[in-house]
Amino acid sequence: PLRTVVAWRGRAEWDQVMVGLYCGDSRLQQDALDRVSAWKSRYGPKMPLAVDCTAELIRCKVLDSSGRLKSHELILSYGLALVRFVNLITERKQKMVSLPLRQLAREVDIPVWVVDLRHELTHGKLPRLALCRKG
């Protein structure tokens, strides 16, 4: 059988990190984020985009709940994570054929309003924090 080298030790570690990321407990989420950072140091650019983007979005939520960042800093943090998410997820399809971002996003089930939010973050004025949180 063909073997694939991955950054995590096994299915149990993978499952533990995924549960930690989605659990809603900031402390457990931070532990999971630390583990993802270790994976990234081992795996580098081969890190799955879904894992990388999910970790960045969860990192924003953890920072938000900590109360350590000002509103403007949170908008920038959420903004960068959302822009990276939309760009990286749609980039794979963009390499195959040149299509508008809205159409590419629709094909991978990213809501149009998230694409519009990404556009505002990239080209317009910064949106409200509440909209970034929703994104």
TrEMBL record:
GO terms for cellular component: Las1 complex; preribosome, large subunit precursor. It comes from the Eukaryota. GO terms for molecular function: endonuclease activity. InterPro entries: Las1. GO terms for biological process: maturation of 5.8S rRNA; maturation of LSU-rRNA. This is LAS1L protein. It comes from Regulus satrapa.
